[in-house]
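Give me structure tokens for this 534-residue protein.
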Amino acid sequence: MRRWIRRLSSQILLAQVAILTASMVIGFLLFAQTARANLDADYQARAAGIAQTFAGIPDIQACMSAPTSGCDATMQSLASQTANRTGAAYVVVIDLNRVRHTHPDPLLIGKKVSEPVVARDGKVHLGTDTGATGVNANARVPLFGADDRVIGEVSVGIRESSVSGELLNELPSYALWFALVLAIGALASFALASLLKRRTFGLELDEIARLLQEREATLHGIREGVIAIDPAGRIAVVNDEAQRLLHLPDGARGRLLDDVLVASPIRDTLTGTTEVKDAIAITDEYVLVINRMPVTLGGRAHGAVFTLQDRTEVTGLTRELDGERSFTESIRAQQHEFSNRMHALSGLLELGRTDEALHFLAEIRGTTADLDNTLRTHIGAPMLIGLLLGKAAEANERGIDLVVSPDTDVGEAPDRVQALTTIIGNLIDNAFDALALAAGPRQVVVGIVETASALTVRVSDNGPGVPSTDVPRIFENGFTTKRGTLVRHSGLGLSLVHSTVTKLGGTVTISGEGGATFEVVLPRTPAPTAEARR
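Here you go.
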């Protein structure tokens, strides 16, 4: 029994039946009170009709106009007969001096009434009278003489017990109708409770509450962003991580996704209609992996669910690993080149050609020293020098000529050196990959110019260039023109460059005539004034 009561449908049914029962009882009591008031009015009107009929009897009018010795007995007899025929409790005739001339109790005949003669005004007065015969529905009508003057009052009363008896006779039939309505309401409540039970998949209240708590704990506890939208494109569910990653405003739930996201490739992905798996999107701050799953129930679309994974740290580690790999490849290339040179030098010495060995050593030293001197002359930042030395070794192994532009001029501590390293490294890697299948002499020219207002990076190659149809999409995350083993960065390199430059307030442009040239312009950070330093 206790388990049955705890069921959701049972609680709904019991609650509705209790409400219906209480409503029916209150309604029945109000109806009974209204019926009693109506019966009182009916009996008062009946009493008024009896009184008016009695007041119109000629003998009554004659006796009250000119009383004789037998008038009181005549009126008492007529009053008793009238009361017996009509069921009235009393028929009392009162003159203008408040003296009774008829009464059911003969001892009160000739005695004055305590209240005034209200019918003196010639009107009918209805009400309830509590007198010697008990509580009665009362009517007092004027008694007119031959000259139409008021000569007295006729008061007729019908016992309230008669009113109550008639009410009790009528109430059972009304109670039956009320009970029928209650039964119909109970059946409707049972049907509604069953419908709600089906709509809630048979779950009970405590199960629904537990599911809601678990859902909230799961949504706001996981490190993935979750967004659910309804068929109209309004946000139905959003957790804290999704708000953080997409910078959604407070109160985003219930609003259209188009209204809370700025125009961007991410918004295009989220507002699409197709399924999306592991799509990479880059914002100014985060690298995100997006999945979009349309939801269909019963063959009808019910919106979609999105998950957002923050891959910023992983991507950063990937870039660091790429840098380490590049450095390792550079060291390996240098070791390989060094071994070849040592083999050549060893052969010359074994042949006794010492002069040629000395000349070979001088040539090697000059080539290495030239690059080192060029970098140190034009670039003061050690991090950039190390980057370019590593890239030069990699270029040498891949048969590419890496040239530092003569106009390169960078100080020891340029602005945003870490971001600058990311930009230059990705642009050089992109140029190397573009030249991988190029025929003939392959060359990459790197120029870095630092001025008082901006820092400009220019990387160009003499490869096949970028087709004009690909230029609008070249900086989209995931887009690449490389194929096969050349796909090293999965289309992220140039996208990272673009997002980094945009975040720093700079610009990046591309020209594809006679190869590809990428130019990045970063505004310089204004130096703090003396006021700010204080």
